[in-house]
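example protein:
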Amino acid sequence: MNYIFTLILLLISCLDAKEYSIVIDKPFNNILFDITQDYDRQISAVGFSQDFKGLEFKPKRYTNPFEYLQNISTSNGERMHFIKADLHGNITLSKALTLAKCSQAMSIVKTPSNGYFIGGYTLDGSLVVLKLDAKTNIIFTKIFGTKNFDKLNNIVALRDGGVLAVGTSKTTRSIYNDMFESGIGLNDIYITRFSRDGRKLWSKKYGTIDDDEGIDAVEARDGSIVVLGKTANEKGQDVTIMRITQNGNKIWIKHHKTTEIVFAHKIIQLRDGNFLLSLSQKAKLQKEYIRLIKFDIQKNILNDKVLTTTYSSVLKDIKEYSNSNLIGVGYVRDSYNTDALVIILNSKLEMLYQEHYGDENLDQFNAVTILHNFQSAAAGIKTDENSQEANMWIAKINQDASLSKVSKQPKVKIKKDVFSTDVTFVK
């Protein structure tokens, strides 16, 4: 009898379940770029929100034009935004991290103390790394870079508790700054290593005479670092992979040259110690294909596979399950619509499942993290069918690429639009 009663309750719960898909609807365009899971099983994601305040009835008078411009920057524009969600699909925290300049958060990394490193950049070209405690209070903020325009694409967790900031910088040829004497092209790969307490250990640039961009990196088992970048020239775009020491000295570099335009998106280290690249390439009809390259630490190619899909498809992020299957997320696009894409692959890079999610508008997943229970959580953009504004989006995904379902739970009281101003600027 107890078994039957439990079964009935389970069936009722399933009928009452809804998909774990959270859309954070705020004014103007708002996007999530990265996502992770906390030690309390909640999900944390970062990106940016936009805030444009109207003029006050009695606006303040300024005698210094630079003070006026700074005030405009701090009160209007894009802000790093931090979102937390619980297991039942409730938003438990929505927090704007206010810096002195408009900024975007591109990447999030967990710390052993259940805190976070967050990486991003200001819109005038400085790079930013913040460290937060478990309650998202700012421990320190590092603003760094060159005097030219820089952009951060990712921060990478290192085994010593520090992080590696990977991005791009305009070429610098100053005789007073030998740190960047290797910058030789239009843009160069720009990498900075920080200790766990925020000390900048080194900062170096790498590049060719063409236009180079740092995309991502991963720490190998021997402590060396494998970097993913791209190189653009008048003939097209090539993918660059580079291996450097813990101190940033170059070990080897390899350029993947093709007759088609190739874009680099992600690099991960697999459970077998080898590495996997998520790329996309454009065919003659401008259709985008997913391309995956597996290689070893000596840059030998082990598998180079193109996934053929009906529509243009791109994987922005990819992760490996403990059973060696892979989940990739990104977007699929036809002539009038873009949907979020989820693909499940086996260890041979063969497609097992594929699903598309979204309305008749722009929808996209930018990042994915694998959760403790073999499900995954993805973050990105969700655009309402009748709106031009992008919203922040978090979804939970099963191993067959379907959206996870959660039973109805009472809504929690969220901390909404909490602003933090505890910022220390370090050059």
Summary: Confidence is low (pLDDT under 50) at residues 5-15, 54-58, 418-427. The longest strand covers residues 43-52.
